[in-house]
């Protein structure tokens, strides 16, 4: 009980806030690019001054998909570690700052080469599209910076374990550690393709590139990347939301098991992004599809746990009937309402994910704008709204301020605006995708092909939705600026829930890292070794670089 | 004695606070929605074969 008044140390707060500032600057710039994109794709607007659609598209994807997320997550995790495992040591904080500056310099470098038109290769930077070496170097620095921060986090965890032998670590600390292990294991793939393939190739040291290997290494990283975004949102759902509503965590063990299952199953599944890729034996694709469907289990466990937390709380307040507990939830509290909207959107997002990952169904939606609609539900709604909801208590906690009622109301309006905008934009993307509209492409009627003309009403709906979402971005930036600089001084709680009395004791096996890492590595080796050897042994001549913009 | 005590009890409808029937209904709804979406796109796939 006493621990609930604990505050994040001011020096740790500064480190976390530095990350959060960069994240929200990325949101502002990336969001503006998103608005320009949907306007271009409506066919009613062309970019001025010869700016390429693909430059804007790459900026949008890199700033929002890679920069906003990674910076917010690392900042949030440093704060969470400081709150639950004690103030960071000077050494850990020092390395946290080194990580921050490495990532920031990398981001600036990457952004520079995109904006001068030397790297319009989209955020997936698929070969044979070839960017300026500075783009790849910048991305390398972002990843290396995140590793430095990751190891700083591990050191902090190790210190806690040393000081508390035989004890189960605080759940938020445990979750941060799992997420950084996941990140470190999966970024090995992207580091390998960037350092050994893309960089030498763009520097002209080698002439050709094995495209299939580079894409495979990218998706070895690309799918767990989604879970690197999602797990901090789950931290908020499992640990923060129960406290915000006044309830308790349904089960500590269930939450930890969920995170371990994500660690194990989210990496050896990259082939489900490559289901129409030639050169990979269908049997290996099948194996990875099966493993992908294993990820459904922790997702459904989370859904169950959330419903149970809400129902237990509602019933403890006297709710009756099948859904009476819903009425007891604090709908007027932005810290609950905003992430809750994110949770709701995760239902269609998950359903779409099952379609994407099914081999035959993937042929209906592959490379269509359905996929873009899908990750605007997962990342750009579920994850991002949860991050916004977290920012509404985290920023005032770190800056020694309080959220006013007016800002709370604005935050609720912001979530509603976001939901409406995303309903139109993502909904239209899903339907246009089912009609064959491609992703990753500017407006075209493809020679007035009847099929392409069918997409235009949906593209206009996307522009309407995107414009509404841009209003949502302006609103969140107003709120964040207020909380960081102008809100009244005061104390804001960093909510961390206790576990329900009925829950079972948490077994120590969840922190048997040798076991979990062993299973993770074994599954990766099983899923990738044979097809990877095949890709290298039976490789075509390789491709020269292309700059199509 | 025990019988007397029993006979004076009034019947009140008490719902167990630990009931999770709403959760059960919610996860069933979620499951049906997932299956519905999957089957819908599957039939679209079959239709386009």
TrEMBL record, chain A:
Family, per entry: Belongs to the heme-copper respiratory oxidase family.
Keyword Cell membrane listed: no
GO process annotations (BP): aerobic respiration
Keyword annotations: Electron transport, Heme, Iron, Membrane, Metal-binding, Respiratory chain, Transmembrane, Transmembrane helix, Transport
Membrane-related topology note: Multi-pass membrane protein
Protein name: Cytochrome c oxidase subunit 1
Cytochrome oxidase subunit I profile domain boundaries: 14-549
Organism: Thermolongibacillus altinsuensis
GO molecular function, one term: heme binding
Signal peptide residues on this chain, from the entry's feature table: none
Transmembrane segments: 20-40, 60-82, 94-115, 135-158, 170-198, 218-241, 253-271, 291-313, 334-355, 375-395, 415-435, 455-480, 515-533
UniProtKB/TrEMBL annotation, chain B:
Keyword Transmembrane helix: yes
Alphabetical UniProt keywords: Membrane, Transmembrane, Transmembrane helix
Parts of the chain that traverse the membrane: 20-45
UniProt protein name: Cytochrome c oxidase subunit IIa family protein
Organism of provenance: Thermolongibacillus altinsuensis
């Amino acid at each position: 009980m006493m621990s609930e008044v604990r505050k994040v140390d001011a020096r740790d707060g500064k480190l976390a806030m530095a990350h959060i500032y960069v994240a929200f600057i990325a949101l502002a710039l990336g969001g503006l690019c998103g608005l320009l994109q949907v306007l271009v794709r409506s066919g009613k607007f062309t970019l001025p001054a010869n700016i390429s659609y693909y430059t804007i598209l790459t900026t949008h994807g890199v700033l929002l998909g890679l920069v906003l997320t990674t910076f917010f997550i690392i900042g949030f995790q440093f704060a969470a570690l400081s709150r639950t495992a004690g103030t960071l040591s000077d050494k850990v904080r020092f390395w946290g700052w080194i990580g921050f500056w490495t990532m920031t310099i990398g981001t600036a470098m990457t952004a520079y080469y995109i904006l001068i038109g030397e790297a319009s290769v989209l955020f997936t930077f698929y070969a044979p599209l070839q960017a300026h070496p500075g783009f790849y170097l910048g991305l390398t620095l972002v990843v290396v910076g995140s590793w430095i921060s990751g190891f700083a986090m591990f050191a902090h965890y190790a210190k806690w374990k040393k000081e508390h032998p035989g004890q189960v670590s605080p759940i938020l600390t445990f979750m941060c550690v799992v997420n950084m292990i996941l990140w470190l294991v999966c970024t090995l793939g992207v580091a390998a393709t960037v350092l050994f393939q893309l960089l030498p190739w763009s520097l002209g040291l080698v002439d050709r590139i094995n495209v299939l290997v580079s894409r495979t290494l990218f998706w070895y990283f690309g799918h767990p990347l989604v879970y690197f975004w999602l797990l901090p949102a789950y931290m908020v759902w499992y640990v923060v939301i129960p406290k915000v509503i006044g309830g308790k965590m349904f089960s500590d063990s269930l939450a930890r098991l969920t995170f371990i299952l994500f660690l194990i199953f989210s990496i050896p599944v990259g082939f489900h992004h490559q289901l129409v890729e030639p050169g990979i034996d269908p049997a290996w694709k099948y194996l990875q599809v099966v493993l992908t469907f294993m990820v459904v289990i922790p997702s459904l466990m989370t859904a169950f746990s959330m419903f149970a937390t809400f129902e237990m709380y509602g019933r403890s307040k006297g709710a009756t009937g099948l859904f009476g507990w819903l009425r007891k939830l604090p709908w007027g509290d932005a810290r609950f309402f905003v992430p809750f909207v994110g949770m709701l959107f995760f239902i269609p997002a998950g359903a779409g994910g099952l379609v994407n990952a099914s081999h035959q169904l993937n042929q209906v939606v592959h490379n269509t704008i359905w996929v873009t609609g899908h990750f605007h539900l997962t990342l750009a709604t579920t994850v991002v709204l949860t991050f916004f909801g977290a920012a509404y208590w985290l920023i005032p906690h770190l800056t020694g301020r309080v959220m006013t009622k007016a800002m709370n109301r604005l935050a609720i309006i912001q979530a509603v605006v976001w939901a409406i905008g995303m309903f139109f934009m993502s909904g239209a993307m899903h339907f246009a995708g089912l009609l064959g509209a491609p992703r990753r492409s500017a407006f075209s009627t493809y020679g007035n092909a009847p099929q392409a003309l069918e997409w235009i009403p949906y593209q206009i709906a996307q522009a309407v939705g995107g414009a509404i979402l841009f209003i949502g971005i302006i609103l969140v930036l107003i709120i964040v600026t207020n909380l960081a600089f102008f809100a009244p001084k005061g104390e804001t709680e960093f909510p961390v829930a206790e576990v329900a009395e009925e829950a079972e004791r948490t077994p120590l096996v969840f922190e048997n890292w040798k076991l979990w890492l062993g299973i993770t590595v074994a599954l990766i080796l099983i899923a990738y070794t044979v097809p990877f050897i095949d890709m290298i042994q039976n490789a075509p001549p390789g491709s020269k670089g292309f700059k199509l913009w | 004695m025990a019988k007397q005590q029993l006979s004076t009890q009034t019947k009140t409808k008490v719902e167990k606070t630990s009931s999770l029937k709403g959760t059960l209904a919610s996860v069933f709804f979620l499951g049906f929605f997932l299956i519905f979406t999957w089957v819908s796109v599957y039939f679209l796939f079959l239709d386009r074969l």
